[in-house]
Amino acid sequence: MENTLESILPFWKNLSDEEKQTVTNKAMYVNQKKGTLIHTSSSECLGLMCVIKGRVRVFINSQNGSEITLYRLLDHDVCVLSASCMMKNLNFSVNMETEEDTNFVIIPKNVYQSLDENNIFVKNYTLSLVNERFSDTMWVLNQYVFSNMAKRLADALLLHMSLTGSDELTITHEMLARDLGTAREVITRLLKQFQADNFVLLSRGKIKILDSKKLLKI
Amino acid sequence: MENTLESILPFWKNLSDEEKQTVTNKAMYVNQKKGTLIHTSSSECLGLMCVIKGRVRVFINSQNGSEITLYRLLDHDVCVLSASCMMKNLNFSVNMETEEDTNFVIIPKNVYQSLDENNIFVKNYTLSLVNERFSDTMWVLNQYVFSNMAKRLADALLLHMSLTGSDELTITHEMLARDLGTAREVITRLLKQFQADNFVLLSRGKIKILDSKKLLKI
DNA sequence: ATACTAATGTGATAATATCACAGAAAAGTT
DNA sequence: AACTTTTCTGTGATATTATCACATTAGTAT
Predict the structure, then answer these.
(1) What is the DSSP letter of B81?
(2) Interatomic distance B58 CA / C13 C1' (Å)
(3) Do B144 and A141 make contact, defined as CB atoms within 8 angstroms?
(4) If you average pLDDT over residues B190-202, what whole number do you get?
(5) Is A95 helix (H, G, I), strand (E, B) or coil?
(6) B106 pairs with which residues across the strands?
(7) In DSSP terms, which residues pair with A168 in a beta bridge?
């Protein structure tokens, strides 16, 4: 456990031996299957979630089921919003679901809170995490407000390409729609267009990227 | 100056006498006329801007001129994003313009930075400010993605009503459009609709709210 | 009174969202 | 294999919102 925490938390070396001990004892391993909703607007405060290995999508949703993705957590990413309950003036909530089988370490709320209050390095880290997520969210807002759907879809395809490191994406139109906050039909029609233009090759549940340069230029 | 700072900055009482002295000496009064662009994406880092009296609109914009408002700063509000340059992992930029004649105090970047590094109360305050702006921005994203334009416009009218404390708004369709990230014509048409429904009474440069309850229910 | 500017009005068209299905492909069942 | 069921994709019709292009009107300045 200690090695795991050390590799994920940049402030580890700045903790006292006593602090290290406490965190190590109280932190818990959690394993979740792909497709699990691990946090919702209504769920209680977990504490700090550290992804060891896997992928988590963080998104907001509306009453009638539509959603938009804010950002993703990958190996060694830490989710500060899961700990939002302990943060002053942070008044919104998000949902999280695993997109792969995912291993976490969870540092309970009160343990992290005490670290954050007593250790300046932890506090620095918390702020930089919030900043990072704020930046990601601003990117989404910018794209949503100022870009057209074709450009946003092209960007989303390129993002998934870099996430998986493959030009053969295993993804449905529905999933892309939920990333971008639009309807599935809109994605279907645009992808058909992209295929007609020879940017991609479509098959059920898969999208092969044929020309990423042209996608980038949209 | 000292009284001003004390009334705006909640951490003032937690500063050492030396810190107080430094800040008091280095802080500057600035006065800007209504309608001044006081910060843009490209402008340099100012430091911490504290509004003494006035109103500032914080917004993002695109190349082709459209914009959307993120939040407003009122009396005694403090803008962290003007000091974003000194914050790790905060990678986006905003614009700010005064909507009234506005008095600020500006604490220079390096002075605030040093406070933030050395004083835990300042650091707490910085984080809570970022959280607050993040929350405001999430509200905007939520509205933009999940609400229709009529609802968003109704909310914007109610917001301006509470901002000014009057049911007679001095505001143009153009300004509302820039708040909501849409085109002026869209606002014009919706307002006509609202007037036909007897929710508002329109005249050049003014909107009188006739039925705020019905607006709220949209 | 005249010219100018800012604000508003409006038609036409394009882009996107929404609704309501239909059909195809894969997965599960008997 | 033959079937049922589920998931994914395709598509027309319509509503909403965005964009473009310009006309009109209300205030302001000369």
Answers:
(1) G
(2) 33
(3) yes
(4) 96
(5) strand
(6) B28, B49
(7) A208
In chain A, CATH 2.60.120.10 covers: 2-145
At B81, the amino acid letter reads L
- The CATH H-level superfamily of A2-145 is Jelly Rolls (2.60.120.10)
- The tens digit of pLDDT for each residue in A57-108 reads 999 999 888 999 999 999 999 998 888 888 889 989 899 999 999 999 999 9
Residue of A nearest to B142 (CA): A60
Cβ atoms of B22 and B119 closer than 8 Å: no
| Averaged pLDDT, A177-194 | 97
Residue ranges of the alpha helices (H) in A44-180?
A: 109-118, 120-146, 149-164, 173-180
Distance CA A48, CA A79 (A): 6
Measured CA angle at A174 (ends A71, A33), to 5 deg: 60
pLDDT of res. A81: 85
B→A interface, C-beta within 8 Å: 60, 62, 66, 68, 87-92, 120, 123-124, 126-135, 137-142, 144-146, 181
Is the CB of B60 less than 8 angstroms away from the CB of A141? yes
Rounded distance between C-alpha atoms, residue A48 and residue B139, angstroms? 23
What is the dihedral angle through the alpha carbons of B82, B88, B89, B93, rounded to the nearest 10 degrees?
Answer: 10
Both tokens of A201, joined, read 């090759």
H runs (alpha helix) in B85-148: 109-118, 120-146
Domain B147-217 belongs to what topology? Arc Repressor Mutant, subunit A (1.10.10)
Tell me the three state secondary structure of residue B132. Answer: helix
Residues of chain A with CATH 1.10.10.10: 147-217
Quick check: pTM over 0.90? yes
Phi, psi of B108, deg, nearest 5: -55, 150
The pLDDT value recorded for residue B218 is 86
CA distances from A170 to A80, A99, A165, A166, A208 (A): 28, 12, 12, 10, 9
